[in-house]
Write a structure and sequence with these properties.
Number of strands: 2
Structural class: mainly alpha
Order of helices and strands: HHHEHE
Largest sheet: 2 strands, antiparallel
Helix content: over 70%
Strand content: under 5%
Shape: elongated
Strand order of the largest sheet: 1-2
Distance between the termini: 94 Å
């Protein structure tokens, strides 16, 4: 009877240990896969962002640490995507803004070189004005670049957007009027105050 009891206990312990080991392996495999999947997704997302694909996002699974990390990753990716879009727009705008004064200077220099226009003070003044305009554009670009890198001390204040628009129209109206063009501001609508320096 003692021997049968001992054998039964040994068999029961063996079965229990085997079942516990198999359960532990299954649970740890499940947890490892559950943890590795979001980590692999973040690693893949990081590789895509490093390659310039700022639209990359990762799943925000759950409310645990990995879910919070996924949400933070997606917010970072969104910020990078917005910054990259703004950078491209800025480069495009700057290129466009430089074409006009550069074309004017080039045209005047070419016309004066081939004798179509006289080398007068008036024509040299036009070239000087356009050169100064390009210098102002470069200075503005430098200021924008410094501001984006947080190297400029911006003093932000709330401003009424329509006041800014009307001031810009007023400043440019004379130059447009000289060319026979009337410059008007759009009709007023609801605009929230803007923070500007």
């Amino acid at each position: 009877l003692d021997r049968a009891f001992t054998d039964a206990v040994v068999v029961a312990l063996a079965i229990a240990i085997t079942a516990a080991a198999l359960t532990a392996v299954a649970v740890s495999s499940f947890l490892a896969l559950r943890m590795l999947r979001p980590i692999r997704a973040m690693a893949e997302g990081s590789r895509r962002i490093a390659a310039g694909q700022y639209e990359a996002r990762v799943p925000e699974a759950g409310q645990d640490e990995l879910g919070v990390l996924g949400k933070a990753f997606n917010e970072m990716a969104s910020s990078l995507e917005t910054a990259e879009r703004r950078r491209k727009e800025l480069v495009s705008d700057v290129a466009h803004e430089f074409r006009t004064p550069l074309a004017t200077v080039e045209g005047y220099v070419e016309a004066m070189s081939d004798g179509t226009l006289p080398r007068s003070d008036e024509n040299l003044d036009v070239i000087t004005q356009e050169t100064r305009r390009m210098a102002r554009l470069l200075e503005d670009l430098s200021k924008v670049s410094m501001a984006e890198e947080r190297q400029r001390d911006l003093r932000l204040v709330a401003a009424e957007p329509w006041a800014l628009i009307e001031r810009a129209v007023q400043a440019a109206s004379l130059a447009y009027a000289e060319k026979g063009v009337t410059l008007d501001a759009p009709k007023r609508g609801e605009l929230a105050p803007a923070l500007v320096d």
